[in-house]
């Protein structure tokens, strides 16, 4: 590992691979998280995947209970820690309540997205948790570091969801020069070569999203899974039309929703879902993916994907 902070070595020792199954809106739920943790990679779901606060509480209770039960059943097994994921942007109307729920269940890791991690760091540290801030530039990484985060999820070009536009080859070394915390690198990583390359670049973990969409455990609609299996990176378009922040979309889903690709106009600044007035609600019926989709040729269970990654990663390490 490149980070010199011992808390990350402790986290890595509970994992079978240096991989996070990245949180995904309308995709990650209890089953994806629990299966990821069972396979030894950190699982995570966004609070926004629960429409009601009571549902969020129930999901947090279930994930916490099931991950603890897996550990209790086999204390020698590597059961990876669970990570909560919270949009910290000021337009998120449920921020305070979701944070309260996080503090109630005390997940080992909290990943913040689309806003400053400032309001999260102190309360999470107070119970012994670690905070990772999701950022897509060196400037935002610095701001997050100044807030006292423990790790940075670096969303590089090629990422699914709200994407980045800087190359990982530029981002990781630029941040490694001054950052001794963890770097979790995301963007089109879908196989063991990508995981190993992230480490060689200077990251500690890989942040893998799209690869886990076509799994039986994901909540993604069948159309989303099938579109990912059938598509290539040429079928993607980056636009900020739907949420105000640049995201990587599957063109066929935009066309199917009745939009003309040529007329997606740029917007001013991110707005939490449902805040764009009469405009289309982002994500529902519109499908996102990262540029790693050419590596995906079928739906596979999480355990099978992780077993494959582990086998190939071990061979790469040995070589
Ligand atoms: C469908 C989809 C939904 C996403 N939703 C979220 C989200 O709600 N919160 C978040 O922090 N990141 C979200 N992301 C970004 C991922 O956490 C991660 O940064 C990204 O998937 C990594 O790139 P990859 O998809 O190329 O592996 C989403 C990504 C995808 C593909």
How does this structure look, described?
- The protein has a single domain, classed as Aldolase class I (TIM Barrel).
- 37% of the residues lie in helices and 15% in strands.
- It is built from 11 helices and 11 strands.
- The protein has helices at 6-12, 30-39, 53-73, 95-105, 118-126, 138-146, 168-176, 192-201, 222-230, 251-256, 302-318; strands at residues 19-21, 42-46, 83-87, 109-113, 130-135, 151-155, 161-162, 182-186, 205-208, 236-239, 247-250.
- It has an 8-stranded parallel barrel, surrounded by 6 helices. A 3-stranded antiparallel β-sheet has the order 7-11-10.
- Strand 3 (83-87), helix 4 and strand 4 (109-113) form a beta-alpha-beta unit.
- The longest helix is centred in the first third of the chain and has 21 residues, at 53-73.
- Flavin mononucleotide (FMN) binds at residues 22-25, 27, 46, 85, 113, 134, 155, 158-161, 186-189, 207-210, 288-290, 292.
